[in-house]
Here is the input.
Amino acid sequence: MSYIRPSLVNEEIYHVVSRAVGDTVVYVDESDFYRGIFSIYEFNNNKRVEIWERRRARNRFKKQEKEAVGRPTSHLSEYPDERDRLVDILAFSFMPNHLHLILKQLKDNGITEFMKKVNGGYAKYFNEKYKRMGHLFNKFRAVHIKDDNQLRTSFLYVHANLISMIEPGWKEKGIKNPKKVKEFLENNKRHSYVDYLGKKVFPSVTQRELFLEFMNGPEGCKAGVDNWIKNKNKHDSEELAL
Here is the structure.
């Protein structure tokens, strides 16, 4: 069945998936994941982005902060944010061979331009590191979040996706060890769930106000994911799965 991407409208919210060609594992190790996080933050910018210039500027800032107050900076939020954002990143989840994002478009063509920058920039890094040539990602897919039920389901679905890394086939077979799965999700840096719980791992990557209000704060976020795990709820997940 052919796929037709929906129109991408400013101020609307979309669940976006970017999958590697041939399901190639593109986030091989922790350094790749950190580069992915760095990319979705830095390339969320309507201005021209030179990744190495931004990295050097950040390192200079950290050095100056350490010299000034005697402590190193650790979070992106501590670096002055001078970006002209293309989108609000409401949630993310890095799987080995694809990336889930919940995005609110801020500028005309913002999601398309953002994904072009992210996928192109990461592909250049990945191909140089692993001596590879050619395209790395398929065209991204998007689902328009149309109502509150779909908004809630998208939050839960994206943040439950990492379960597949420790319990393959859980969507069909159920979850064997709910306690282990909860601990895994609450301590894994590869998605935005940990920041929604208030742990501040990558706090400036996401704009969390909407979901925190909608889900009734960190405890509501946790309760929603815990309930999803308990009931292995598949409602609406087929459309969101793209």
Observations:
- The two ends are 12 Å apart (CA to CA).
